[in-house]
């Protein structure tokens, strides 16, 4: 299997790059699909970790860095949605508060 490691890691790296783009766009469905596929690839390498080369570990570090960036994008989108929901809630409260007043 260790002969397959570079190809599997290259595919996982490509998936990580696609995952980063999906996270940047806020495409959670694509993000979940890519993450599941990448996880299967990386889990298939788990038993080989003692036999990975330095180049293989460098690719794993790249994958990890891309993953961290993707998490940052997802967190950014989550906070943005939370702010929008908070703003909408303030507006609803204002409408509720002023709806009981009438022009005289």
Q: Could you explain how this protein is built, in words?
A:
By secondary structure, this protein is mainly alpha-helical. The protein has a single domain (5-98), classed as Methane Monooxygenase Hydroxylase, Chain G, domain 1, CATH 1.20.58. The chain is built from 3 helices and no strands. The longest helix has 45 residues, at 54-98. The model has no long low-confidence stretch (mean pLDDT 90).
Order of helices and strands: HHH
Mean pLDDT: 90
| Cα-based radius of gyration, to the nearest Å | 22 Å
Strand tally, please? 0
Proportion of helical residues: over 70%
Topology, please?
Elements lengths: L4 H21 L2 H17 L9 H45 L6
Helix pairs in contact: 1-2, 1-3
Structural descriptors:
Methane Monooxygenase Hydroxylase, Chain G, domain 1, rod-shaped, 104 residues, mainly alpha
